[in-house]
Write a sequence for this structure.
């Protein structure tokens, strides 16, 4: 089976985190050992299974979680660094408040919080009995202590220099398995007192059966033992190979009373995350060609459909952040279905944004006849794709009854049938987001109210073009291209719920949606936090900017055009150069016009129709070049007509029912200048506006 995993590190200790809700039966000791193996597995000090044990809020947050820690050998114990890592992970997922919470471990309940002074996760240990004298096997000082802080610890006291060169594995293994601590054994800590508030420690950990870079419960045991012997401040800093831990406890402690309010604080961070198939770990990420963050349909069809859904079935809407590629610049929407009551548990995504590269792909895309598909795959593979591309995933859980959830799933399953899953993709009107909203409408009928009257974009009369701008304005070349290719239809105000064509627009709209008069979606929470800005941000130099390029072309065109209008008699090589410069500008504009004409006549993309840029980027500019080879008089008149039309367009561009970008405006003036507006061939042959004969 597929399941998700996260690998976290807490001050040098590393752990594999697994959601217990994905498991009907926990793996055996052999699997635990195999996963923790640093040569053939992921490598870790232990494995942590977690699941919520308290009430879950509408936003998916729960402040009480079960923690089941297994050492590399499969034995259970409490782990201080593991609990801190788990708490930091749950906070990062949006599943637990950073201010406070509770972890249920094998030894009892542990409070957790974010330390306000050091800005690190902290866990409260159980009340700890006073240290007891222990038999000394190695300590040059001849003293040793035993402290149980949730895990048993034998503490050997020495000097800093001695501990630094000590063979921890040799001495630690002998003490760990000594008959005095039979049958379970003990963790062995070798500790030196550096200062009244600082200790140096190395640990041999049972279960791992080797030296570990850090041990949270061991650090707490050493701090308490040192305070018990030396007194002083009610806190200690314990330095280990993996970093530093801060131990705090109640002051004025007496040796015969339990140590209370013991807190363990230190850094924790994520190392990796991914998905396993239960047979082998995926060490390297799979490269998947995506469109709008989705896997190819070849990834679908690998999951079974249960005949009966349990009452624990849950539906949520996933919103993926924009990607770095153009096709993912607007983000993505998918529907997630979970049923933890199944064996094994179900965690799927229904994805309306999948397509396949095949012969004629680009031609079909240009014609607006590109087929998209509804794909079904595991959430783990969906999540891994976003991890690989450093994109965020936000989840909105739908507050539905089990019956209503089944209705939506039933429609999705029907829609996923081979005869129903294919649809003709339309960028603004029929995409992954609009299809997800349509699925809800089809499943629940008139009971569902999207509350389109609360569409903020509609209320402000935002156009489709304006809605697209924030996602591409960080890439000026893409912005200029899209502004040029989209026609006047995208400058009309969006209809009701029109903003739902954007994934985050749908996410905002669902917040107002109701089923039977009740809101169904709350505030989204982050499954994967954003690794970068939500919108594209491409840095280009000032000289590599479309406005700069268009301005240079305009200045160039203005210079030689004015010179051409004033000076009529010149060297033939100069005249030819000027003529070819004008033809170059006209040819470029004419080719752009051919593209616009094709995007109006041969495509089903209605958003590219009725493009007013065709007035200045006209295919007639190419006709002009051909006409001059056969009829100079006809070419001159066509040239003058084009010059007049373009001039009228430019002086009235403010009232044209379409947004014309600054880049297009500058280029349009360049085209007008290339048409030699100084020439007026309607009377007495080729006469100029200055009344001279044009000899060129």
């Amino acid at each position: 089976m597929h399941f998700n995993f996260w690998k976290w590190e807490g001050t040098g200790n590393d752990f594999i985190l697994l959601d217990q809700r994905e498991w009907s039966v926990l793996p055996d000791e052999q699997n635990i050992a195999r996963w923790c193996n640093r040569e053939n597995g992921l490598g870790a000090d232990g494995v942590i299974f977690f699941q919520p044990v308290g009430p879950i809020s509408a936003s998916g947050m729960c402040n009480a979680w079960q923690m089941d820690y297994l050492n590399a050998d499969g034995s259970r114990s409490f782990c201080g660094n593991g609990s801190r890592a788990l708490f930091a992970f749950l906070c990062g997922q949006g599943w637990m408040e950073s201010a406070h919470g509770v972890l249920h471990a094998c030894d009892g309940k542990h409070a957790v919080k974010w330390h306000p002074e050091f800005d690190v996760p902290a866990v409260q240990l159980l009340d700890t009995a006073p240290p007891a004298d222990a038999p000394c096997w190695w300590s040059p000082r001849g003293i040793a202590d035993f402290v149980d802080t949730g895990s048993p610890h034998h503490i050997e006291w020495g000097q800093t220099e001695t501990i630094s060169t000590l063979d921890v594995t040799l001495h630690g293994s002998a003490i760990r398995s000594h008959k005095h601590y039979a049958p379970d054994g003990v963790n062995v800590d070798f500790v030196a007192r550096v200062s009244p508030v600082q200790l140096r420690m190395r640990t041999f950990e049972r279960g791992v059966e080797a030296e570990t870079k850090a041990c949270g419960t061991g650090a707490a045991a050493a701090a308490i033992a040192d305070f018990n012997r030396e007194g002083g401040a009610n806190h200690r800093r314990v330095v280990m190979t993996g970093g530093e831990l801060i131990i705090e406890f109640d002051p004025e402690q007496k040796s015969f009373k339990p140590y209370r309010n013991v807190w363990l604080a230190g850094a924790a961070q994520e190392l990796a995350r991914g998905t396993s198939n239960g047979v082998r770990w995926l060490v390297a990420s799979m490269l998947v060609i995506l469109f709008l963050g989705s896997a190819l349909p070849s990834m679908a069809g690998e999951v079974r459909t249960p005949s009966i859904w349990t009452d624990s079935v849950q539906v949520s809407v996933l919103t993926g952040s924009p990607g770095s590629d153009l096709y993912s610049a607007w983000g993505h929407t998918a529907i997630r279905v979970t049923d933890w009551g199944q064996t094994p548990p179900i965690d799927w995504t229904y994805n309306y944004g999948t397509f396949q590269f095949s012969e004629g792909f680009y031609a079909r895309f240009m014609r607006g006849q590109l087929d998209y598909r509804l794909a079904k795959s595991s959430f783990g593979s969906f999540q891994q794709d976003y991890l690989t591309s450093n994109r965020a995933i936000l989840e909105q859980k739908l507050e539905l009854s089990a019956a209503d959830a089944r209705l939506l799933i039933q429609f999705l399953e029907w829609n996923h049938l081979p005869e129903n899953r294919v649809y003709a993709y339309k960028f603004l009107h029929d995409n992954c987001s609009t299809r997800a909203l349509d699925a809800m409408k089809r499943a629940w009928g008139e009971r569902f109210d999207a509350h389109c009257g609360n569409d903020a974009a509609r209320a402000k009369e935002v156009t489709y073009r304006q809605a697209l701008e924030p996602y591409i304005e960080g890439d000026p070349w893409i912005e200029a291209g899209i502004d040029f290719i989209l026609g006047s239809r995208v400058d009309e105000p969006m209809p009701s719920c029109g903003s739902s064509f954007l994934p985050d627009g749908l996410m905002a709209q669902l917040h107002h949606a109701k089923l039977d008069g009740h809101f169904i979606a709350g505030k989204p929470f982050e499954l994967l936090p954003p690794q970068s800005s939500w919108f594209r941000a491409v840095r280009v130099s000032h000289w590599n900017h479309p406005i700069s390029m268009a301005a240079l072309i305009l200045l160039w065109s203005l210079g030689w055009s004015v010179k051409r209008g004033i000076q009529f008699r010149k060297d033939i090589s100069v005249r030819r150069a000027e003529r070819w410069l004008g033809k170059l500008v006209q040819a470029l504009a004419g080719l752009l016009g051919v593209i616009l004409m094709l995007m109006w006549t041969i495509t089903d993309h209605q958003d590219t129709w009725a493009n007013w840029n065709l007035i200045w980027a006209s295919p007639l500019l190419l006709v002009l070049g051909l006409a001059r080879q056969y009829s100079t008089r006809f070419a001159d008149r066509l040239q003058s007509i084009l010059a007049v039309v373009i001039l009228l367009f430019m002086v009235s561009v403010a009232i044209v029912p379409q947004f014309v970008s600054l880049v297009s405006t500058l280029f349009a003036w360049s085209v007008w200048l290339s048409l030699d507006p100084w020439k007026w061939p309607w009377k007495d042959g080729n006469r100029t506006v200055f009344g001279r004969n044009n000899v060129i």
Summary: The CA atoms of residues 170 and 210 lie 9 Å apart. The longest strand covers residues 187-195. The radius of gyration is 35 Å.
